[in-house]
Design goal:
The protein contains twelve helices and 38 strands. By secondary structure, the protein is α+β, with helices and mostly antiparallel strands. Strands 7-6-5-4-3-2-1-8 form an eight-stranded parallel β-sheet. A seven-stranded mixed β-sheet has the order 9-10-11-16-13-14-17. β2, α5 and β3 form a beta-alpha-beta unit. α6 packs across α7, α9 packs parallel to α10 and α9 packs parallel to α11. The two termini are 46 Å apart.
Amino acid sequence: MRSLLTAVALVAASVAVPVAQADPVVEADPTLALTPPMGFNNWNTTGCNINEQMIRDMADIFVTKGLKDAGYQYVNVDDCWADLTRDPETGRLRNHPTRFPSGMKALADYIHARGLKFGIYTSAGTQTCAKTMPGALDHEELDAQTFADWGVDYLKYDNCNNEGRPALERYTKMRDALKKTGRPIVYSICEWGQNKPWEWGKDVGNLWRTTGDINDTWSKTVEILKLNAPLDQYAGPGHWNDPDMLEVGNGQQSTVEYQSHFALWSIMAAPLLIGADLRKVSAEHFDILRNKEIIAINQDRLGVQGKVIKQENGQWVFVKPLSNGDKAVALFNESEVNATISTTARDLGLRQSIGYTVRDLWQHKNFQSAGQISAALPPHGTAIFRVKASQDWYQHEPAIDTQLDIAQQFPGIPSTITPAGEPFVATVTATNQAPIPVLNAATTFTAPAGWKVEKLASERAPVLLTSQSVQSKWKVTPPAGAVPGAHVLNGALGVTWVGHGKLTRPVSSPVLVPVAPPSGGEFWASDVKFTTERSGYGPVERDKSNGGYLGGDGKTLTINGKTYEKGLGAHANAELILYVGGRCSSFTSDVGIDDERDVNKLGSAIFQVYADGVKVADSGLRTWQDDAVSVSGSLRGAKFLRLVVNDSGDGVRFDRGDFAGAKLTC
């Protein structure tokens, strides 16, 4: 656990400790966690700022907001619940006197009275990760019995302050201690994936962390996805890969990204532990968390983790077999541009059929398909379906893919960035994926009021057969005075479904009009409005180092002891795009690894500068030991400046990179 503490813990407390041999006699309880655990854990939203009323509120919200009805059952307390020392007479852990004055058994009783289950936390070390309470190392039996006496149903067992003792030895001792109590307690191994717990965890616990901590950033979500997805062979009923908690509802990602997070964790048969303060979650994000059809994919009793069957150019296809013979499929667009992602019933392993029923689990609606399963997705979007070969496929609406594509105007720049006054081409395409034809197919297009739209081409199909498409092209020009910010383009397909009447398939695409570029002087890059930015750990910071994953939490920009008042603080992998509109002539900056986490003696990155799609500067490899190096490049004629901080090939941990003293001449 711990976004702020893991960095220290990973380096100082647990440098890949030895793995002992598994005990072949005693095994984890095979009757527990037959489907991935669902519930709540407070750490990612509150850290140590917890108390018993907050946890009671979470239990109440489970009931009142329908989470219990959706399948969530564990209300788990993380670190900092106990007093700093053990009871001097009994040696037992005791509740923190001010945070949990009523005691942990009273809290468990409160949760149980609502038909829910209670989870607790400790570490397989001398102290927990926050160092606010004793760990369970060498106290396994006493602590396990204490938990059982309190009515604990779930134990998260962390890895901090472990004295370098073998992981399997430590986690096996707690397994045996829990079993000895006679109480069924789900056992969660939080070993961070350091010693490949997926290879031995099945005999020890019910779930095991496969990665370090998650945080509420898109980059970390994708990083963890990529580590967990290849481990599908190790998961099954009673033993699950755990890519850490859900961030849905914490507010730092978009709704599209939270939908992807939830759908991907669900198809990977991951534990669904909400890591947000339920008192603050929006109605929109509650709807994601309560999607019973997607939860049913996660909780399917066959217990198979979804497998990646395609991954290229940021386009992913997952398939998960279900207990009734259906297949769940997730289509995920990792990229920064709109994409249509497809697979087939044959690729999913379904039997041959004239038609298939494809149920969209976000729309809660069935469609008929001849065997193609596809979706037009925005950047970072995920579609998730339940697919089966069926006899009643003809009863459902035809599956017709409709997509709206924007031609790229500037090399290296997402096509959805559209400067005021600059024309671009939008294309609306619709493809019939149903076994039956549809009639009178044609597409339309609209832009925001005041934008100029000129039709370049438009097709109309009296009959649109399976796999056939219709298309229209449009030249679009935002006015010179277009308001900077997000705008929406809309397209649609109109068809006739024989015997049923007219159907419409709408599609939309957001576009971004950047603010006017700087002109007539020299400008600090940190004073210029960002067009887009992404960073590997929180936002790109202005005039500060990267800090943590929340904005504004960095320090003075410092590279090997040299400080800078102005500049940009990022974390690999990062990309910052600034609109310069052809008005700037050059860019200069010092670059290097920030001293913020110099105590770890880690961090390396490569800094690059692009004028539109042309690389005009490259720092080469820079490490935490290096002084700053100056980079500069010509921007003459370029519409966009793109600044990149890339991993050097050794992973991104502590790769906090600065563009220090970054300046534009315009």
